[in-house]
Here is the input.
Amino acid sequence: MKMINILKIAMAVLMLSTFTAKADYTLIVPQEPGKGTSVWASIIAKNLSKFLDEPVVIRHIPGARDIPGFNEFHNKLRNNDKTIMVAHGGNGVSFLLDKVDYNYFDYELIGSMNNDIVLGKHKGADEKKGNWKIAGGSGFEPDGAAVAMLLCGPQGSGTVDDYLKCWRERASWINGVSGGEKRLGFKNKEFDVARESPAAWNKFYKHIEENELWFTHGILDLKNKSQMADPNFPGTQFEEKYKALWGEYPKGDLYNAYKLTRNWRDAIQKSLWVNKGNPNTEKLRTALKKMIADPEASAEIKKLAGDYPWIVGEEGPAMLAILKSLITEKALKDAVKWNQEAYGFPSVFKAELLK
Here is the structure.
């Protein structure tokens, strides 16, 4: 009788371990279905499953500023070996400037699309004239700082206070406008600035006759540890546009704060993370590399998100080291001040990021 019970227990343990091994991979997406990162995640899940030979499903955990889903991954879900966090650029900015539980340095990168954001204006609009109406929002923090520098040009020594004075005279920042309302408002000339992902730019703005591409931010060059021009939009990088307009390259405190938030947003704008020590890390990285190299999967991803290089797993520490080097006490405090006073965002200075 005892032997039968032992056998039953052994079988139950074996079945449980087999079930756990065969459990689906889950992508945690910190926003509701239909938004940009959610749509990207659905394409990644479909294609990644082909190269894992295991199903990949999506679990949406939306919430304010897309923070609750990432916090739940950090606090409750990351120790599950088949749970993957999908993070976007807004999560990167929030890591710097908001009270969050998650910490990129506690995870391992599976892969990240080294991405960009495109900004447009009405054709012929003169940056040196008038008050510009801008529909802002979460994730737009670097965009607004770049717009301020283009509208205002060199300001004293380039302090945040210098630019805030000009910003209040030259720009009207309007929060709480949906994506569709932003596009319609720009088309109707209620807003003066268009701001989109590269794919959305090509879909919604590229063919509008009265619209013109204003600038892009460029992408992170891991080899040279610097920003390089967006290969999809050559000749449009912010620094070059600023120099063409004002005769010199941007510099000063606001520019340093801009570089901090720009790179933390865009280098990890579309990224996949697992907990440190996850036994499936290399398997996932291998599957991701195969997916990137597959013509059909690659074409589908590029159609949605643009033709951008990937930073794959083992390059993650180098990427994080570059991003970490941008976090200085001065740049962080200036980014907080700009976000609070230019946009009205409740940002906080996080001294722990300087360690």
Notes: Residues 2-115+267-325 form a domain with the D-Maltodextrin-Binding Protein; domain 2 fold (CATH 3.40.190.150). Confidence is low (pLDDT under 50) at residues 6-21.
